[in-house]
Write the C-alpha cells for this entry.
Amino acid sequence: MYGYVVINKPELKIREFDEYRSYYCGLCRALGERYGVGGKISISYDMTFLVLLLNGLYEPAVKHEKRRCMLHPVVSHEERRSEVTDYVADMNVLMTYYKCVDDWVDERKLTRKVYADTLKKRVSKIIEAYPKKASVIAEELNNLAEFERSGENNMDTVSRCFGNIMSELLAMKCDEWEETLRELGFCLGKFIYILDAYDDLDGDIKKGRYNMLKSHMDNPHFDELIEGILNDVMSRCARCFERLPIIQDAEIIRNIIYSGVWTRFEIVKARKLKKKTN
C-alpha cells in the first residue's frame, strides 16, 4: 500500500533531488539505528514525504552528515536527520508491525508473522510512547479487515480508514497546525488507498482477492470515475498544504503533491489501457 507519494524527478532541479534523497537516506539511517535491518527494509517514499512536510513546517535543527552505507559503499552521500526523522521512523515501524500482524491474522502469511515478531519488542516501546496513535492504527486496520471480510464496496467508507491512519500520523504535535495537518493526511491516505486498489485490481480479480473497486467496473466510465475521485482528494490535499506556512523545501513538496503522485497513476492508467487494446 506504499510507494505512491513520490517525486517527479525530471521536474526537479539537481540540487532539489539531492536534498530529497538526503532526507530519504536520513530516514533509512534512523530506521537502521533504532530498529535494525528489520526497520530499514520498511522504508517508503510515502514516509519520506512526511519527513519533508513536517521538517518544512516545524523547522527543527537538522543534522547533516556524509556517510557510506551498504547501497553506497564507495561514494559517501549526504544524510539529513532531525527529531522529525526519528518520529517518522517510529511511525513507519509501528505501521509496518500492525500491517504484518493483520496479514498474519487474516491470510496466515508466515513471512509477515516472522517479520512482526522481529519488531515486536521494539514496537512495544513505540506503543508506550504513542498509545493513541497505536490505538488508531490498530483500530482502523481492523476496520479495513472487517470491510474486506464483508465485501464492502463503498469507496468513501473503506478508504477513509487509511485516511484516518495518515491523519493521525501527520498530527505530530497538538498545536495550531494540527487540524490542517490532519485534513491533509486524511486526503493523502484516501488517495493512497484508492490508487493502490486501482493498481491491484486486475491482479485481485485474477486471484479472487477482495478489492472494493470490483463492483464499480461495470461503469462505462470507470477509469474516468477513479481519476475524478483521485483529483478531488488531491486537490483538497493541495489546498491544505498551501495553508501551511512552509518555505523550506516547499518546491519539492509541491512537486510531489501536484505532479509526483500522478506519475504513478499515469503508469497504472497506461498499463490498463494497453491491456484493453491488446
In short: The CA atoms of residues 138 and 154 lie 21 Å apart.
